[in-house]
Amino acid sequence: MSSGASGGGGGGGAASGGGNSNHQRGAAQRPNGQTQNKICQFKLVLLGESAVGKSSLVLRFVKGQFHEYQESTIGAAFLTQTICLDDTTVKFEIWDTAGQERYHSLAPMYYRGAQAAIVVYDITNQDTFGRAKTWVKELQRQASPTIVIALAGNKQDLANKRMVEYEEAQAYADENGLLFMETSAKTAMNVSEIFLAIARKLPKNDQSGGGGGGAGGSSQGRRLAEGDSGSRGPAGACCK
Amino acid sequence: MYATKQPSLRIKQADLKCKNGCGYFGNADWEGYCSKCYRNHMDKERQRKSNQSQHGDHSKATSFSKFEEKKRQQSDKKTKYFLPVFRKPSSLKETGRPEKYIDIRQMNPDADKLLAEFISAYGEWGEAVRKDFLKCVHSFTSKIIHELDFKSADELADIAQNYYNSYNNRLNNNTVYQNVTPDVRDKLLDFFERYSMVGLYTFLFCPPSTNDEDKDLSIQDRIRKLSWVNAHHLDCCISETSIEVRDLVYTAINDLLGMDSMKAPQEKLACVVRCCRSVVEVLQHCQGGPVSADEFLPALIFIVLKANPARLKSNMLYVTRFCYGARLMQGEAGYYFTNLCCAVSFIENLTAESLNMAQQEFEAYMSGEVTCVSAWESALVACEGMHQLCEHLSLLKGLSERMSAVKDDTQKLKDDMRKLKEEINDEVTSVLERTPLVIKPRKTIFPLTMEFLKSLPPLPEKPPIPDKGKEVEINQDVDTAPKFYQQNITLTQMGLSDNKPKLQLDITPCVNLPSASVVKPSLSTDFLSVPSPAADKSIESITPDDNSYLGLSKINYDIDFSDISAENSIIEDLGESRRSPTMSFTPDPFSPMGTGCPIMQSPLVPSAAEMPRVEVPPVRKNDFVLPFLEEIEKEDTKKETLLDKVEETPTICLPPPIKPTEYTGFSKQGSRIPSIPCNTGDVSSLNLQQSAGSSKDTN
């Protein structure tokens, strides 16, 4: 659908259908893979108040851009999507989070070990932008220091009811080093672009620290949870 | 400072900071410290502990008390492994270890199954792969067991994770696995974890060194207290009334409950995934469209609340510790497990605010003062209640129907009984009405009967005359008898007529029959001695006829009156026809039938018939009659039986009814006497015809 846009943005970014996740994870974990088309797997968390369109955004990305999606077993809560970027295959594993305020305190469990996060707000609702800011703050403090954070002003198609100015959000994003785009899940505007931008910003080298490859991320995430590798800095809560 | 365990609606920054005040953020699982401070803290703790353990006794005591505590709560299965908890001297441990390793293989039948599975699945990759795999498993498990007594659960978890990683590296780099495809390498890694964890399950699940079990109990208690929370409170759109949805909810609950029965962490994870997929399905049914986390998490919380799985925390901690870390951080399983952790965490820290209700209301619910009308429960209860109600109603209906039927029947029975009573009364009264007229006057007419009696033994009419003296005696005796046997007499009298000749005929047989063989000789020895054989036969034949008469009832009597001779012939025929099938006693049954009122006596007939036989033979005729009557008079208690006996005899003698009324007294006597002979006479039924013929002749 909007692959053209992604190509323009990503320089040769092309889409490939989702495949066996195990296989890809394994490949990503294995540094000895000589394949030119490197496979990187990233965990991406969706944050934001409920009803800002988190899940529709990701559904647009996953279902809209690629014709096929095995919806039978999985809801919109957990989705995977694979895109091609240059010589790298990037597989996104998208974790949706409950946006209700009462579940706010649980968020650290979700973004623990995540390499990327999209904080979504509704441009027609100022409050959601305020919440987005707190999410960003929390992520910067709690999550992996190398986490790539993107800010998405959703419902751009309702721009006539806009309550959050583009410039205001852009300025905030710049301040905090965030990726920022106004998106519309309804019209698919900027949906794949924002994912591509994230993919480009993510470190593709498996050996790189932080949230690099799946193997590194996972094992480190594990260790972090145990509290044994202090060098990583504070991380999310352990599952308990 | 980090505020543990009290999640408010808003987390302020200060709440998230490390307890040490170093400026970094803290974490509940690090006891509110940031990672660095937590590590320092733990190091200190560990040092303190090791110091203590060097000192010895203290730690022993504490660990023992802990062990006791565990033992109290846990099943016995683990007790044998708890022994090492006593910090034994190392020398002892050296010997203890190999035993335990042997145990692993022996204790886990699953391990052999897994080995077979491994061979079937990965055997194709060669012996080397298998050997290396088993070598690694062996080294891993023995390492864990070796460290089991010294290290905390978390440290053991680290060891496990390191082994997983190193085996993963080995898979990728070792030449043994050169030819193995990446896919299979992944599976081998999974299998490595599964195989070793199945073996180590008993040691590592809820280990005694942790307080996992307390957590289990506390969360269980917590969930129990929160049983009033329903989907509505959680803002989740599970429509609890739909059957389909309810089934799915039950499926989800079952999946979650199944987690406890699995051994390997990944198997437990698989249960969680199944459960969560069911939850997603539930939500898809309820709301349609894609299910986002906004709906999913509340639904999962709801499921956990309703399931209240056993050893929930132990299971989760076990998975967290010993599942290959990558799996928990990534993939569907990781996501759903994270959600489960979130759900449990939410439940643990649930407050009035998080349910959007007033504090007071919340507390009222928690304390049990107010019971919530949960849609879920009420739906279930209502459905079940309705169902039961219907069942009970139908049951009650059936019961009441049966009750009324029983009532009707009892009423009917009552009516019948009353009717019967009335009928009997009527019958009795009617019978009495007929009888009284006859009774008393007849007693006086003995002489005639006496004559007959005398004449009885010898059928020929001549002999009776000489025995007059005896007759008188008999008459006197008879006087008493009639009083007792009014009914019988009446019965006999019913048919009685003025025809003396007939009476003679009838009576004679009756009297003769009982005494036929014995009495005759005794009484009238001289006279009867000669004719007795022939006479007996004739008498016998007649008695049955008399019995048959009874059966014929009144009609016969009428006939009797008119034609004596004809009557005899008819009676004979009937008697014969009836007798032929049955032998001696047949006449008795007939007699009651015919008499109607005396029917009661019928069952006793045989005994009665026998009795006279026994008694009669030894005693002379005179003697016999007298004692018999006397007995009846004196023994009121025996009345019934005696009466019956007596009555029977009259019934049998009913044929005499044809006799003139005057002779009733004799008839009684005669009846008694004859009744006895009747039975005896019956024995020789073949002679009946002849006797009948003879009787006719006599007449």
Automatic annotation (TrEMBL), chain A:
Keywords: Endosome, GTP-binding, Hydrolase, Lipoprotein, Nucleotide-binding, Prenylation, Protein transport, Transport
Subcellular localization: Early endosome
Any single GO BP term: protein transport
SMART domains named in the record: RAB, RAN, RAS, RHO
GO cellular component entries: early endosome
Pfam family, one: Ras
EC numbers on record: 3.6.5.2
Renumbered residue ranges of the record's region Disordered: 1-34, 205-240
Primary localization class, coarse: other
Segments passing through the bilayer: none
Molecular function GO terms recorded: G protein activity; GTP binding
Coiled-coil ranges (or none): none
Hydrolase listed as a keyword: yes
Matching InterPro entries: P-loop_NTPase (IPR027417), Small_GTP-bd (IPR005225), Small_GTPase (IPR001806)
Catalytic activity: GTP + H2O = GDP + phosphate + H(+)
Family: Belongs to the small GTPase superfamily. Rab family.
PANTHER family: PTHR47978
Protein name: small monomeric GTPase
Biological source species: Acanthoscelides obtectus (Bean weevil)
Classification lineage: Eukaryota, Metazoa, Ecdysozoa, Arthropoda, Hexapoda
From TrEMBL, chain B:
Bias-annotated ranges (Basic and acidic residues): 55-76
Gene3D superfamilies cross-referenced by the UniProt entry: 1.10.246.120, 1.20.5.4770, VPS9 domain
Cellular component, GO, one term: cytosol
Residue runs in coiled coils: 396-430
Keyword Metal-binding listed: yes
Location of the VPS9 domain: 213-356
UniProt-listed InterPro entries: DUF5601, VPS9, Vps9-like, VPS9_dom_sf, Znf_A20
Keyword Metal-binding: yes
Residue ranges, compositional bias (Polar residues): 664-699
SMART domains: VPS9 (SM00167), ZnF_A20 (SM00259)
Keyword vocabulary terms for this entry: Coiled coil, Metal-binding, Zinc, Zinc-finger
Domain annotation A20-type: ranges: 12-46
GO molecular function, one term: guanyl-nucleotide exchange factor activity
Pfam families: DUF5601 (PF18151), VPS9 (PF02204), zf-A20 (PF01754)
Region (Disordered): 45-76, 651-699
GO BP: vesicle-mediated transport
Protein name: Rab5 GDP/GTP exchange factor
